[in-house]
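Comment thread on ticket #2218

A.B. wrote:
> Attaching the input chain for the structure job we discussed in standup.
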Amino acid sequence: VQLVESGGGLVQPGGSLRLSCSASGSTYWWMGWVRQAPGIECKLISTIVFGGSTFYSDSVKGRFTVSRDNAKNTLYLQVNNLKTEDTAVYYCATVGLAYWGQGTQVTVS
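C.D. wrote:
> Ran it. Output below, let me know if you need it in another format.
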């Protein structure tokens, strides 16, 4: 299993980004996004299953949208209306959090 995230960057408050995660090896039924802010433990913020059902943590609900392209084995996270507290490294994960990517940094400032 190899997960490779991209799309992070520096953005002003209120801005948007689209994070991507390319997965190799198979099409995974469950995929999620986890973020880790400086000095704070990792937090699962969004998940999506193969059929499209989604979950969002309260902190991102209404601002973030998770989606997937099963044909491309790619997971996305559209992040809108970013706040300074969204600054973190964002990781995609699969197989019940057993596998993680290397992460992509999102900085809101």
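A.B. wrote:
> Thanks. Noting for the ticket: The longest strand covers residues 17-24.
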